[in-house]
Design goal:
A hairpin with a 2-residue loop joins strand 1 and strand 2. The termini are far apart. The chain has a single domain, classed as Nuclear Transport Factor 2, Chain: A (Roll). With 141 residues, it is an alpha+beta fold. Strands 2-1-6-5-4-3 form a six-stranded mixed beta sheet. The protein has three helices and six strands; from the N terminus they run H-H-E-E-H-E-E-E-E.
Length: 141
């Protein structure tokens, strides 16, 4: 059996790929594209928001499609990575802060600010996909 050690270059590449996952969600949201949003998740991924639990791409896609026609219409979302912890070579936990931007806003209003955890995993095609997402109000600290 041969064991390969990960180089610092591999680690930096993985760190950049993990940190880019929120950008894929931001881009899908900006396009108001529920399909692209759901495709960031693994097929059986989960999304937990205050008062909401959705499991699987179809439930996530359906929720976002409704949202883009309703409460999230013409909004944008933002998220800045605060921390990345690798749980193994192919799994990471990402913490972000951000929230939903209403039309014309450049900063998230304090009452809509969130902190989120993202569990991401490298798939067989080497892409990092979202396994589980959860957010909660940021509060004051």
């Amino acid at each position: 059996m041969t064991t390969q050690k990960r180089t610092s270059s591999d680690k930096e590449t993985d760190l950049a790929a993990v940190a880019a996952v929120p950008g894929r969600i931001i881009a899908a949201w900006a396009a108001q594209d529920a399909n692209a949003f759901a495709e960031v998740f693994v097929p059986d991924g989960s999304m937990i928001l205050p008062g909401l639990y959705r499991k699987g791409r179809e439930q996530i896609r359906s929720f976002m499609a409704d949202g883009f026609q309703g409460a999230y219409r013409k909004t944008r979302v933002t998220g800045t990575p605060l921390d990345v912890t690798f749980l193994g070579d192919d799994t990471a936990l990402l913490v972000t802060e951000g929230g939903v931007l209403q039309p014309g806003e450049t900063e998230v209003a304090a009452e809509r600010a969130i902190r989120a955890t993202w569990v991401v995993a490298r798939q067989q095609d080497s892409r990092w996909q979202l396994v589980a997402y959860q957010n909660s109000p940021a509060g004051d600290g």
